Amino acid sequence: MTEEEYELVEATPSSDDYRRLRIAAGLSPKTAEAAAAGLPNTIYAVVIRKDGEAIGMGRIVGDRGLFYQIVDIAVDPKHQKRGLGKRIVGALVDHLRQTALPSAYIGLIADGEAHRLYSLFGFKPTAPLGIGMSLSLK
Length: 138
Prior knowledge:
Layout: E1 6-10, H1 15-24, H2 32-38, E2 44-50, E3 53-62, E4 67-75, H3 84-99, E5 105-107, H4 114-119
């Protein structure tokens, strides 16, 4: 498949697409209630579509001034290894370069080997100055 067959659109994924893509890409599942509450607060998002179906996504969340977080980078495994993750992250970083204030902190969590992708865009590990931490409310 060629890159032209994939359309990148500036849009927040629907709740159903969001939840399906997270699971397909090996990310943790989210409830419909959480998606309904959280997705409208997206600052900026892109979706990659193939034949009208959402097969990839990425979002930016934050306070629109001090802090931004790149989240939910996901590509359906059937469409991976085609540079789609790079297109998604590139669109998000381009948006931040155009809109974020110079002193803003832009962070993300790189799962597995994803740090290789993010480093292409200038992201650097925070360790040893800091480490990412999380709290699960399950």
